[in-house]
Amino acid sequence: MTDSPTSRRRVRSPAQRTTDASTRSRDERRAQQTWVDGAEPALPVRTTRPEHVVFHLGPTNSGKTYESLQALAAAGSGVYAAPLRQLAHEAYAKLSAQLPPGTVGLSTGEEEIDPHAPIVCCTVEKAPPRGEMLVLDESHWVADPDRGHHWARLLLTGEYREMHLISAAEALLLLKPLVADAEQVVVVNHKRLSRLDVLPAPVKPSQVREQTLVVAFSRKTVYAVAAQLDPHRRGKVGVLYGALPPATRRDVIARFTRGELEVLVTTDVIGHGINVPATTVLFAETQKFDGTEMRPLRTWEAAQIAGRAGRYGLTGHGQVGVLGGIAGLKPFASLVAAGAAVARGDVMSDLPNRKPRLRPELDDLGAFEAVDLPEALTRWSMWARTATKTEAMVPDDVSGLVLRVHALLPMLRGPLATDLWTVWRLINLAIDHDPPRKVRWLALARAALQHEAGLAVSRELVLPAVPRSSTVQDYEQAAAQAREAQTLLRSFPGVAGLTSADAAEVEERCANKITELLPEAISLSTAARCTGCGTGIAPWFTTCRDCGTRPSGRPSSDRRPPRAGAGRSQAPSSSGSSAGGRGAGGRKPRKSDVGAGGRQDPQAHDRADRGRGSDAGPPRSDSARPKHRRRGRSAGGPTGAR
């Protein structure tokens, strides 16, 4: 007799749970005693506490950043720090326009302009540890699981006489404990400066007006939507997404601002404080893949995007709604309306209540050699769990650093053996380590080790050449590799005889080619089709449901007639051309390509849109792993996981 699933399930008794808790507590107490005398780590503190901290709280388009920048300009010395390079550029341009030459500098890692000027606009990772005034934009990023530790460290240890923290009101409870030592704390509540209305009905592609942002959440969907809009505004539709080089993004935003582009199809990269003259924001979809699962937008995410409409001083009042008529996309108007209410400041959002994360410095670990790092990191993690129990923070997950160390250790032999500091810098490089990018990180790490050992390094290994006669996606990949090379060369200058300026030049050339190719890529894009039968399908599929489940060898002519409204469109290739077709008798889709019903794995596409480093996306959700359930055969596509 076969046991039922219930009888096979392991259930822990209360006594077992108590024993487990006691074991963890004992392990943590033991971790406190395993440090060498005098080498125990300590929680970060500052020696000089801030005199004045001002919280600027409120919805989008409420003047929070404007007032903070005015205070920084009046002070004449300080730092503006933001999560994105684009925001640092905007602040640099605004302050440079009102202050004398040489007063304002820029430091984003990728670009340095007068970095020692009295006022510096930078990404958070580049913010100096002390100064006269700190203006920290988008401060709720302190809860981001990937980059939040930079915000936490800056707020806990930054020695600034005055701090201006810009955030949504919901983040006050997270931020206030990090500056509890301030002599004076002031909270300024801001209200939205322009009206934001919700459109009563979906907007068709032919009805989209100028000065409109259309939002989608993957590269393929962005191109698919742009292809539907371009015939109605030929040559006036632009695209904006995370994989574009920063220079291309700035060019696209500038063209939209000047009116050369009338409609901009963009991912949620537009939602992080970037100001453009948009009167309307339309959502082509209201769910996104957040790195773990496909889920509906949170209301605070929808609010960040919806708030781009009707920017005070740029346009009149704004309006937000949904875009209809795109095959396979079904945005929910109720979610957009909820986001608009948050953007107006009418209701509170559902910003995740994550505690700031503490990450170790090398001096905290008590390691002497690279081989000690895995144990030292694990030991620090155990110590930090106990040390932060009564604090307004939690220890960061260091398992990714441990994995990187284990990947490097086999290389650290013979001539490539190196010191602990070199290994620490390598494992902390802001280069994606998730497969398949791990191969690139390992190649760059080996190149750095060979350079440190005085061995020759191939230039092409570090900085591939600019592609010739290639597609937009090929240039995007080359630009991404150039940015990774810049990251390496800033920490290890001279590898392969290169400097970060050499890599920046390659990235700029790729960006120029992308800018040149984008209009044609959009105009050549077509509504995607099933590779088996040609039926329109959604951008994230390659086949319709019937073709994806048809046994191998069954001819396409046997296919049942499509149901009403069964349009699903496939995304264009990177150059804008439609995907290659599969006629009758073509290969059956591989499992790696499609799942049941021809559904593609959403994790297999558009990973570049997730972003890392100073252009990383918003905090990931706290929700659990994807929950899959069988859907009906409606050809409109699932409303949950794709």
From TrEMBL:
<feature type="region of interest" description="Disordered">
    <location>
        <begin position="1"/>
        <end position="42"/>
    </location>
</feature>
<dbReference type="Pfam" id="PF22527">
    <property type="entry name" value="DEXQc_Suv3"/>
</dbReference>
<feature type="compositionally biased region" description="Low complexity">
    <location>
        <begin position="563"/>
        <end position="577"/>
    </location>
</feature>
<dbReference type="InterPro" id="IPR014001">
    <property type="entry name" value="Helicase_ATP-bd"/>
</dbReference>
<dbReference type="Pfam" id="PF00271">
    <property type="entry name" value="Helicase_C"/>
</dbReference>
<dbReference type="InterPro" id="IPR055206">
    <property type="entry name" value="DEXQc_SUV3"/>
</dbReference>
<protein>
    <submittedName>
        <fullName>Unannotated protein</fullName>
    </submittedName>
</protein>
<feature type="compositionally biased region" description="Basic and acidic residues">
    <location>
        <begin position="602"/>
        <end position="613"/>
    </location>
</feature>
<dbReference type="InterPro" id="IPR050699">
    <property type="entry name" value="RNA-DNA_Helicase"/>
</dbReference>
<feature type="domain" description="Helicase ATP-binding">
    <location>
        <begin position="45"/>
        <end position="178"/>
    </location>
</feature>
<feature type="domain" description="Helicase C-terminal">
    <location>
        <begin position="181"/>
        <end position="348"/>
    </location>
</feature>
<dbReference type="InterPro" id="IPR027417">
    <property type="entry name" value="P-loop_NTPase"/>
</dbReference>
<keyword id="KW-0547">Nucleotide-binding</keyword>
<dbReference type="GO" id="GO:0005524">
    <property type="term" value="F:ATP binding"/>
</dbReference>
<dbReference type="GO" id="GO:0016787">
    <property type="term" value="F:hydrolase activity"/>
</dbReference>
<dbReference type="GO" id="GO:0004386">
    <property type="term" value="F:helicase activity"/>
</dbReference>
<keyword id="KW-0067">ATP-binding</keyword>
<keyword id="KW-0378">Hydrolase</keyword>
<keyword id="KW-0347">Helicase</keyword>
<dbReference type="InterPro" id="IPR001650">
    <property type="entry name" value="Helicase_C-like"/>
</dbReference>
<feature type="region of interest" description="Disordered">
    <location>
        <begin position="549"/>
        <end position="642"/>
    </location>
</feature>
